[in-house]
Write a structure and sequence with these properties.
Length: about 160
């Protein structure tokens, strides 16, 4: 994958994250890791990651907390929940709560590359849409302002 983006791993367990990190490295995807929800909160605000992989359990929270944190960023970010075990009920809960995906080992490179690509594309699409909406609002506000206060435009 040649496109540059920022991936954050939020986990406190080595399984399955060591194998996930290894697979991401083979795909030339750089990552940063934090071991807690609080660490994620600090780093997310500073870096606005395109993609977050989170463990199902953290010392100070769990995957729903990471999704909630990502949703309150202001900058769209995709979240993928990583589990060491297959759990269909957890899969559906994760999807219903707004995660981009739910994955578990083994991490097949082609499959992982596709999932990462789609998650990053989704985050970037939403960021672009958010920027366009903000610009449209700004332009619309300026136009409404000119209609309400037309004398201010004539003085310029």
């Amino acid at each position: 994958m040649s496109d540059r983006f920022f991936v954050l791993l939020v986990h406190s367990r080595t399984v399955p994250f060591d194998s996930l990190k290894s697979a991401l490295t083979k795909l030339n995807i750089a990552t940063s890791s934090v071991g807690s929800l609080e660490g994620a909160r600090r780093l997310i605000r500073q870096t606005e990651p395109d993609l977050i992989f989170t463990d199902t359990a953290l010392p100070d929270g769990s995957w729903p907390d990471v999704i909630k944190l990502a949703n309150h960023l202001g900058t769209p970010t995709s979240v993928i929940v990583v589990s060491p075990l297959t759990d269909i009920k957890l899969y559906w809960a994760v999807r219903e709560r707004g995660a981009h995906d739910f994955i578990m080992p083994p991490f097949e490179l082609d499959w992982l590359a596709l999932i990462v690509q789609r998650a990053v594309e989704r985050a970037r699409y939403l960021r672009h849409a958010q920027a366009r909406a903000a610009e449209a609002w700004r332009v619309g506000w300026a136009e409404r302002h000119r209609r309400v206060f037309p004398e201010r435009d004539r003085t310029s």
